[in-house]
What we know:
The protein is 82% helix and 0% strand.
Amino acid sequence: GGAAELVAASTIAMADSLGMPVSTTHVLSSGGAGTMGANDSGIQPETVRAIALAWVLTLPVTMALAGGLYWLATACTG
């Protein structure tokens, strides 16, 4: 756990210094999976599938939510 936190913090700090937007949740979950793989403690396929699904769905769901909220706000304000 500590190694995953350290890797996540380092990755986020490096991305911030380069001005790159990153998701802290994605970085931390990927760091956890990488740590499990490096320690040969086994990576559960269900966990990897959930992480990949979150990576794929984050952008479209966020876009749909933002669009829906914009539509609602314009409908309410005229």
